[in-house]
Amino acid sequence: MPTVYDVPADELIKRTAQYLHDNFGDINPPSWAIYVKTGSYLDKPPQDPDFWYIRSASLLRKIYVNRVIGVDHLKKEYGGRTRKGTVGKHKKSGGGTIIRNILKQLEKVGLVETINRQGRKVTQKGTSILDSLAGEVLKNLEKETPGLEKYR
């Protein structure tokens, strides 16, 4: 059975975002999501209309890969560089409100759970969904790329 580690991250995130959009009605962007930036280092909010689902899928994958991870570490993961003029560039953390709201939605549907004073981890339900989606992605890649199965 293939896992998240066996498939390219971008393909898995696309497939997981579509799955979350289709199957979970509780995961949807709030009304303010079209106006906010994802970090203080950015100039504009995200332009992709499916941004919320893509970020949800990406967060779910990151939590799966890191086992247990907190919001502060996730803010650092989604951070970037800011311009400081002649001073140079500095690293800035990403915005925490979007991350916290997505994690609350993922907890509400039962894909993520809170571990007291440590962070969040993926539940068995979330693990099985991600692994089955990874299997689908791998089958699609094998269909598109003949000879890929010999590298497994």
Low-confidence stretches: none
- DSSP helical segment count: 5
Radius of gyration: 17 Å
**How many structural domains does the protein architecture include?**
1
Number of strands: 4
Q: Give the N-to-C terminal Cα separation.
A: 11 Å
User: Largest sheet, order of strands side by side?
Assistant: 1-2
**Major sheet characteristics:** 2 strands, antiparallel
From the spread of the alpha carbons, the general shape counts as globular
Encode the helix/strand succession as letters.
HHHEEHEEH
CATH level-3 fold name: Arc Repressor Mutant, subunit A
- CATH class wording: Mainly Alpha
Q: What is the strand content?
A: 5-15%
**Percent range of helical residues:** 40-55%
CATH architecture: Orthogonal Bundle
Mean pLDDT: 91
- Computed structural class: mainly alpha
CATH superfamily: Winged helix-like DNA-binding domain superfamily/Winged helix DNA-binding domain
Q: What labels describe this entry?
A:
single chain; Arc Repressor Mutant, subunit A; 11% strand; 152 residues; mainly alpha; two-stranded antiparallel sheet; 5 helices; two-stranded antiparallel ribbon
Structure write-up:
This protein has 152 residues and is mainly α. The chain is built from five helices and four strands, in the order H-H-H-E-E-H-E-E-H. Helix 1 (9-23) packs across helix 2 (51-66), helix 1 crosses helix 5 and helix 2 (51-66) packs across helix 4. It is globular and about 50 Å long.
